[in-house]
Design goal:
Layout lengths: L1 H14 L38 H6 L2 H4 L6 H7 L1 H4 L7 E6 L4 H11 L10 E7 L7 H4 L2 H9 L4 E2 L3 H4 L5 E4 L7 H11 L2 E4 L7 H13 L4 E3 L7 H7 L6 E9 L14 H11 L3 E8 L3 E8 L4 E7 L12 E6 L3 E4 L6 H13 L6 H19 L5 E2 H7 L8 H7 L1
Parallel strand pairs: 1-2, 1-4, 2-3, 4-5, 5-6, 7-10
Antiparallel strand pairs: 7-11, 8-9, 8-13, 9-10, 11-12
Helix pairs in contact: 6-8, 10-11, 11-15, 12-13, 13-15
Amino acid sequence: MLLADEFANFESALSRGPLRSEQEHHPGFGHCSITPGLEFPAFREIPRDTPFATPLYQKESSMRSRYVITSLACLFLATPSFADEPAQKEIRIGIIGVDTSHAVEFTRLFNDDKNPDRLKGGRVVAAYPHGSKDIPSSTSRIVPNTEKIAARDVKIVSSIEELLPLVDAVLLETNDGRPHLEQARLVIKAGKTLFVDKPVAASLKETGMLLQEAHAANVPVFSSSSLRYSEDAQAARAGKFGKVYGCDAFSPESREATHPSLFWYGIHGVETLFTVMGPGCESVTRVETETSDVVVGRWKDGRIGTFRGLRSQPKDGPKIGYGGTIFASKANQAIGPFKGYRPLLVEIDKFFHTGKSPVALRETLEIYAFMEAADESTRQGGKPVSIADTLKAAGLDPNLFEESAAAAK
């Protein structure tokens, strides 16, 4: 509207007669000197064939109009809403491990300038490909994924040490959780903001160690499954459905023998459960068969939440997906399907700029303790297993990061 009014004022002034050399102040814009000519915000000489300038040149004689033309760029700079807001720094992102589809998709969402959904707060500039050394489903992806990522104008490097000086923040994407602690230590030592994709590590003990070491070094660290950012789970956490009394979440649960049973894929449904319920789980009980299992968590306030893991695809049934049901005071609500990685990437983008994780360290630690306790319940024939005892068995303080959970409330 301001731009339209400015053009109208300028055309009106041209129709009144010769240009004047004295300055005229326009309210809200200030002065921008032109000699000779009317004073409007940011008038400059620019080429006559500029599209918006043509009618103005036609209205004024060539002798006078050669001095005056409106510069859109300068006008915008003179507007407070633009001039007072510094441009956001574009974060240089490095990837460690490309043996997962996440590495390819995350790079696309940060780097594809033709994609209207591109996240403009950062750009992947370098990647170290490795990676799992002995999980076939991961190692087979390294070469093709490296090629896809390199095609996005990403420098492929031969070591993490080579990558770190090139970047401001790191996406630790190695699909295999076993090398995560060793890889993360290099990032922590360099002081780079760190996102760790699931699983944080291949054991509860190393999960706790990674989080502790980052925290002690004052290095921002964040980990999450993309399922945390499903619309309904986030709405429940924000209180849209009232007080949450319970939640049943489900997801596929394919397993990898080198990891605890739920760390590899069950993490998605467990993350959904904790997103809705919040931290505070105190004990876990598991019932397991060859094709599926149900893990029941009891929260300190008496609420119950469950995770159902599905390992066998029915021959004549629907494809196993992600979802659940929220039980709350205002409404019971189904948790909708997975809608892609972008909502998670939005949070990662914010995290890389602010250094503030959207998920408390205690909640992340409890998620992994819940999954480890499920395995212990199976080993004990389905008996309840406490989260505190599970943390102790891993050599971790049962109250570790409790202050972060309290601060997040």
